[in-house]
Amino acid sequence: xxxxxxxxxxxxxxxxxxxxxxxxxxxxxxxxxxxxxxxxxxxxxxxxxxxxxxxxxxxxxxxxxxxxxxxxxxxxxxxxxxxxxxxxxxxxxxxxxxxxxxxxxxxxxxxxxxxxxxxxxxxxxxxxxxxxxxxxxxxxxxxxxxxxxxxxxxxxxxxxxxxxxxxxxxxxxxxxxxxxxxxxxxxxxxxxxxxxxxxxxxxxxxxxxxxxxxxxxxxxxxxxxxxxxxxxxxxxxxxxxxxxxxxxxxxxxxxxxxxxxxxxxxxxxxxxxxxxxxxxxxxxxxxxxxxxxxx
Length: 295
Hints:
- This protein is of the alpha/beta class.
- Helix content is 28%, strand content 20%.
- It has helices spanning 8-24, 31-36, 47-51, 107-112, 130-146, 166-177, 220-226, 251-264, and strands at 59-64, 75-80, 88-94, 116-121, 154-164, 183-187, 203-208, 233-238, 285-290.
- Mean pLDDT is 90; it is low at 1-35.
- This is Alpha/beta hydrolase.
């Protein structure tokens, strides 16, 4: 029988049956979840969950020697131990000028525990400039998805970058060079290039109000303003924070990073509430801007 001769009702039955079979083949995904968002991971978010020191996933860690990779200096991988939730999005993070991954390593388990594979990189040289750090972030993502021991846990179509200081400037460079990325999160970013009008990657910039090294007036805010209004973007400014706020556990940073990554890497609209209209200014936050409403 030709497909064209099958009744509309019969075609619907065939499609429904095929969909059901496909769902059975994906462990840990229910029909309701797949129909809504196949990338959704973890429970419905609450502020208490986001502010906790760990998310809902248990996390394991594996080290990567600089001798085993090319294009960056090795690092540390953090990943959810769950094998029942399918694959996860991934994020590469760079430390800042003269710094090592250990300076911001709290971000690894914090983000991974919310359902991401994270690689915190060591740079080829601690003096590497933002453009080089951007290329190293992309090299780390390529390693993570193609060669690493956790590559089978990663959805290579859902990748993001972040970094501190020159690493934050590097995350802007990486987002510019690879527009297929799903998100970028520069932290206290530093870069001599002030215009990012070409960016289309959803970008959350977090700056410190009292940063005297990469002042928000000459770095974070011009970066944010230069990104087109048609792109998804947000700017969070931490009240009285110095340039080094990412080097210690910072709850407002974690809340917004997780929310941004869940929304744009996992396409999880349950996190819209934390982005748009976003946090109010007060004791911890001196400024918040975004391209609301979310697309």
